[in-house]
Amino acid sequence: MNHQKLIYIHPVPVRIWHWINAASFIVLIITGIQIRYAETLEFMTLSSAISIHNYVGFAAIANYFIWFAYYLGTGKIKIYIPDLRNVVAMAIKQAQYYGYGFFVGKPNPHVMTPENKFNALQQQAYLVIMMVLLPAQMISGLFLWKVKGYEEYVMLLGGIKIIDTIHVLIFFFFTSFIFIHCYLATLGHTPLAHFKAMFTGYEEHHD
Ligand code: HEM
What we know:
The chain is mainly α. The protein has helices at 12-36, 46-74, 87-99, 120-145, 151-156, 160-185, 193-200, and strands spanning 4-8, 202-206. It has one domain (4-206): Fumarate Reductase Cytochrome B subunit (Up-down Bundle). It is built from seven helices and two strands; from the N terminus they run E-H-H-H-H-H-H-H-E. Helix 1 (12-36) crosses helix 6 (160-185) and helix 4 runs antiparallel to helix 6. Protoporphyrin IX containing FE is lined by residues 10, 14, 18, 21-22, 25, 122, 126, 129-130, 174, 178, 181-182, 185, 194-195, 198.
């Protein structure tokens, strides 16, 4: 029998953080492309691209603290930490599901609960993104915004070229991430199920 129940999976602060973050990333990527490729492209003026990029960059930084405060304050950050005893085996199982099982109708090896909502691949990806890549992007962005003000740190990290390269490489990463992330988000029990859950908070559970 196919029982269906609703589970509350995404609390309000996570949903607010997530959608502000997604919207700001899209604006940051578009304006970032204009700034990076100013010699070949001009779909907006360079000066408006820079000023939008700066404002939205600060909004994204402030927004990050909603995520950080919520997960640290509630102790729920645990859901981001992989279980080292089985992470490799679970990651392989999950990759097999995404690459094959899903297409032949096999069940998802990971069963989502509020205490264990991420599968092993999501855990690793989200942990690196939230703890390493996003902070690195915010800090390198701040340094590029006021190079003179942060001169000492910029020099300590190897100079402006290094900081700029880090910022651009992480920008490439996030741009590709959004496509993969959106594709994987369509693999719920219906193509829109995970997207809806990120708005309503509730995920349908079938057993
Ligand atoms: C158009 C852009 C985006 C869409 C449509 C989207 C969609 C979704 C959906 C449906 C989920 C819930 C399913 C899941 O956990 O995979 C999710 C979760 C998540 N997304 Fe996105 N996303 C977008 C952009 C981003 C960006 C730019 C980032 C980070 C830089 C991001 C980071 C995350 C994280 C960390 C979670 C798990 C949140 C939590 O429950 O703590 N997303 N996203």
